[in-house]
Amino acid sequence: MHPNHAPETLRSLRSAAESAAVFGTVTLDGAKLECPAKSSVASAEYRVEIAPDGWRLSLGTQDRWLSESIESALVESHDSMEDLLREELVDLDWVVAPPKIRHFRDESRRYVFECTIPFGNDAADDLRRTKCHLLAFESMFRQLGDMSGAGSEE
Hints:
Yope Regulator, Chain: A; 39% helix
């Protein structure tokens, strides 16, 4: 069951995402925050949504090639997504075990990388959790595949 302060948390998260200046135009539509990837070679967006078991954080794209470039970068690095996310969280002074990241194709045929962040104790805790994980997700994926817009020239 989601907390009563969820709308307030999403509004505050929107402001934090805009201030971070690492996303395109951030939008809030009801219970869903959308943050377009700023410099990806293909359209991709980060989302934060309220789910029954926590905050659903995802990166999604319709572009199969972009999804495959991320997968290839992971294979080449020999790191798991959770290990990479843990490193980014530590860089943000958030030392917790990272959530399990799922990769799948959803019903709208988007390629999705998704995790669930458990609800916090209050609005401030929820904002801190979701903000830290959103920024860590963005930093992690920006360095994978062609999310940085640089492409692979090898």
